[in-house]
Write a structure and sequence with these properties.
Blueprint: E1 11-16, H1 20-26, E2 33-37, H2 47-59, E3 68-72, H3 81-92, E4 98-101, H4 107-124, E5 132-137, H5 140-144, H6 146-150, E6 156-161, H7 163-170, H8 190-202, E7 206-209, H9 218-231, E8 235-238, H10 244-250, H11 255-275, E9 282-284, E10 287-289, H12 291-302
Parallel strand pairs: 1-2, 1-8, 2-3, 3-4, 4-5, 5-6, 6-7, 7-8
Antiparallel strand pairs: 9-10
Helix pairs in contact: 2-3, 3-4, 11-12
InterPro entries: Aldolase/citrate-lyase_domain, Citrate_lyase_beta/mcl1/mcl2, Pyrv/PenolPyrv_kinase-like_dom, Pyrv_kinase-like_dom_sf
Keywords: Lyase, Magnesium, Metal-binding
Protein name: Citrate lyase subunit beta/citryl-CoA lyase
């Protein structure tokens, strides 16, 4: 399978899989992606019933405005993971773009998910490899193995930073997920975010920032999103419609950058065709552009979902 890392993922809306009301509201949100949650947002007594609710929601012909639809299973330390995969893929796998796996700590967990997912696709008569993976790095062990995790499956499209569980696992002195802990003068998240980003880019994946829980603190959300966007992250989870517009704006490249990227890609394509593939550097807008510049242009277009 060719992983689709050209999907726009500027904003990814978290939707509790146990709530018909929130599922209905999510259908018209102007986000790039949604994920229907079976993990943190769903209480243990209703996890099994929520699988069927998600299957029904996925099969509903209303669909979503969001072009990418995913769902999050429970992590492998729970008794629910396998059936989260089997029941939802078996019931509505044709409507699923990706599965989100939380609390990934090593490559074996990714390989196990890939194996079960392959069997579920086969049993449902679906193309093997058609469903991608999004992997959450949320604790120390996962970060130590992040490169191996990124390389563990050809299905993987994104690595996702999970700030809530990360902050808890580190013992950070704050209850505001996504906010800097008081008393630390630097950026407490820089190391983990950059490590995830490096592993993602080294393996041709997107990197997604996790949520900022202060849904009434729009300035705090903007600060958090702007920081990860400046590093090079492709998007951010959002928890509330109030965060969507700002998230889309922050993770959308400036219009002039997009137009220049299109000119670079087009000029390179024309030059390559004329030279029979033997092109080193070209001139675009009176500036030299080589292979590295082309890569930057393509990455810019990928952020808005354009394959170049």
């Amino acid at each position: 399978m060719d992983k689709d890392v050209t999907r726009a993922r500027r904003t990814i809306l978290a939707v509790p899989g146990s709530s018909d009301r929130f599922i209905a509201k999510s259908r018209t949100q102007p986000v790039d992606a949604i994920f229907l949650d079976l993990e943190d947002a769903v209480a243990p007594p209703v996890k099994e019933a929520s699988r069927q609710r998600i299957v029904e929601a996925l099969n509903d012909p209303q669909g979503w405005q969001a072009p990418t639809v995913t769902y999050r299973v429970n992590d492998w330390s729970t008794p629910w993971t396998t059936m989260d995969i089997v029941e939802v893929v078996g019931g509505a796998g044709a409507e699923v773009d990706c599965i989100v796996l939380p609390k990934v700590t090593d490559a074996d967990q990714v390989k196990a998910l890939d194996l079960v997912l392959t069997q579920a696709e086969q049993a449902a008569g679906l193309p093997v490899g058609g469903i991608g993976l999004e992997l959450q790095i949320e604790e120390a062990r996962g970060l130590l193995h992040v490169a191996e995790i990124a390389a563990a499956s050809a299905r993987t499209e994104t690595l996702v930073y999970g700030p809530g569980d990360w902050m808890a696992s580190m013992g950070m002195k704050t209850l505001n997920v996504g906010s800097q802990p008081p008393g630390y003068v630097g950026d407490a998240f820089h190391h983990v975010q950059m490590s995830i980003l490096v592993a993602a880019r080294a393996h041709g994946l997107q990197a997604i920032d996790g949520p900022f829980v202060g849904i009434r603190d729009l300035e705090g959300f903007k600060t958090s999103a702007s920081s990860s966007a400046a590093l090079g992250y492709d998007g951010k989870w959002v928890l509330h419609p109030s965060q969507v517009e700002a998230g889309n704006d922050i993770f959308t490249p400036p219009a002039e950058n997009v137009e220049r990227a299109r000119r670079i890609v087009g000029a390179y394509r024309d030059a390559t065709a004329e030279a029979g593939g033997a092109v080193g550097a070209i001139v675009v807008d009176d500036e030299m552009v080589d292979g590295a510049g082309l890569a930057v242009a393509r990455a810019t277009l990928a952020k808005i979902g354009e394959r170049a």
